[in-house]
Amino acid sequence: MANPKKPITIDELAQMVERGFAETSSKKDTWLFREEVEQQFKVVIEDVALLRRDTEAGLSGIAATLKAIQGEIKELRAMDAEMTALRLRVERLERKVGISD
């Protein structure tokens, strides 16, 4: 059986429209929400700026430390080469003197 639709009166339609508008946000609500979102974005932007600054500072520190380590490695290589040369000289001297193993 078909369900006959009851015709809607103008008063009922007006009430439905009024309820629909009551459920939507007002301009004031929209502006308050927008201001709240903008404030939250400002906080996020500030946090990102702090993170960027701290990261850059940390990376600069790491770069300086790596440069220092590279310098130390160069010095160690030079010292190793000098030590090898001195060992060879001592071995030759020991052989000449006759005290080598």
Describe it:
- The chain is mainly α and 101 residues long.
- The chain has two helices and no strands.
- The model has no long low-confidence stretch (mean pLDDT 90).
Total number of helices:
2
Shape: rod-shaped
Roughly what is the average pLDDT, rounded to an integer?
A: 90
What is the helix/strand order? HH
**How would you classify the quaternary structure?**
single chain
> Which ranges are low-confidence, i.e. pLDDT below 50, for 5 or more consecutive residues?
none
Largest sheet: none
**Rounded radius of gyration (Å):** 42 Å
- Class per helix and strand makeup: mainly alpha
Strand content: under 5%
What percent of residues adopt helix (DSSP H or I)? over 70%
Report how far the terminal alpha carbons are from each other.
Answer: 117 Å
Q: State the total count of DSSP E strands.
A: 0
